[in-house]
Design brief:
Length: 342
């Protein structure tokens, strides 16, 4: 089977990570990139020996020599770009979220079926072994019937200078936990109640809290804040070189047991004169043969499914559409100060 030719849209820090990982997967190769920043575009072309570079993403999408589109651009571009790529008959990987509008997500799901292409959203936590282990524990009955899910995800305050003007945090950070909650609850959400606060003065709030109820009785809580101090221990310090912290916890409580995972403190620490680090070793680890961890497992799975022409059984599009419906309800509930029911 011939190698799939991949075009990557958006070559910032995470887009470059995608390029590195795709080029490690023997079934594919990155042959084209797109970015609005022309100087960055040329730099990345040279760094990765890529011949084709497009300032206009639509030109890349319409390139007949591209089989797969990976969308790693700003969140509000995901929906329109994905829809156009699907119409062009491309398999599409969309970094989370699937879109920032529920109506766009619904169209993406429909178009993927109509054009018979594989579409997968970058819900990377499903490919991180601690989170996947919790799912396996639920499925084999170790926890019993799930009654409650608690999720928390905090980020460094310094990062919000970038995201606070760009996107509501429920679509940037909260979407990870909404996806996990849906995965673990395994049923339809029927109501959402949320509050939010804006403490940094940007367009979007820097913290929110939500309570979700599901048809099977599961109750879930989700809290997220972008106020982690600069002096906190850093954990994204190797592959991605981000100067900051993701402090995420999730707990699943059942009638027979509980499961809990804390991402921020893996048990490994590095103490230097510059401070204490807790390197994160599940998401995108630097390994002997390149980049590993969840990002490699995720993109490898997508490429295999694209070659087979089969939708992902780990991260189906339907779940991403549902997560966006809940995300929209969280924003609406906080704004209108009322419970949203489905």
């Amino acid at each position: 089977m011939s190698r799939l030719r991949v075009g990557v849209i958006g070559v910032g820090r995470f887009g470059r990570l995608h390029i590195r990982v795709f080029n490690q997967i023997k079934e594919c190769v990155v042959t084209a990139i797109a970015d609005v920043d022309v100087s960055l575009l040329e730099q990345v072309k040279n760094d990765f020996n890529i011949n084709k570079g497009y300032k206009n993403s639509l030109d890349l999408i319409r390139d007949p020599e591209i089989d797969v589109i990976s969308i790693v651009s700003n969140e509000d571009t995901h929906g329109p770009l994905a829809m156009e790529a699907i119409k062009q008959g491309k398999h599409v990987f969309i970094e989370k979220p699937i879109a920032t509008k529920y109506c766009e997500a619904v169209v993406i799901e429909r178009l993927a079926k109509e054009h018979n292409v594989v579409v997968m959203v970058g819900n990377i936590s499903r490919f991180s072994q601690p989170y996947a282990s919790i799912k396996r524990a639920i499925e084999r009955g170790a926890i019993g019937h799930v009654g409650m899910i608690r999720a928390k995800r905090n980020f460094s305050k310094a990062w919000f200078e970038h995201f606070g003007k760009r996107v509501h945090p429920v679509y940037e950070s909260g979407i990870h936990d909404l996806d996990l909650i849906l995965w673990y609850a395994n049923d339809r959400c029927i109501s959402v109640s949320a509050v939010e606060r804006n403490m940094s003065g940007y367009e979007h709030p820097d913290l929110f809290s939500a309570i979700l109820t599901f048809e099977n009785g599961v109750v879930a809580s989700l809290d997220s804040a972008w106020l982690y101090p600069n002096g906190g221990p850093q954990n994204l310090v190797e592959t991605l070189e981000l100067d900051g912290t993701i402090d995420a916890d999730i707990e699943v409580i059942g009638d027979k047991g509980t499961a809990n995972y804390k991402l921020a403190h893996s048990g490994y620490s590095l103490w230097t004169d510059q401070g204490v680090q807790h390197p994160e070793l599940t998401l995108w680890t630097t390994e002997h043969d390149g980049i590993g961890g969840a990002i490699r497992a995720e993109l490898s799975h997508f490429i295999v499914q694209a070659q087979k022409g089969e939708a992902s059984f780990v991260a189906p599009v339907r779940d991403s559409v549902e997560a966006l419906r809940i995300a929209d309800a969280i924003v609406q509930s906080a704004k209108e100060k009322r419970v949203i029911t489905f």
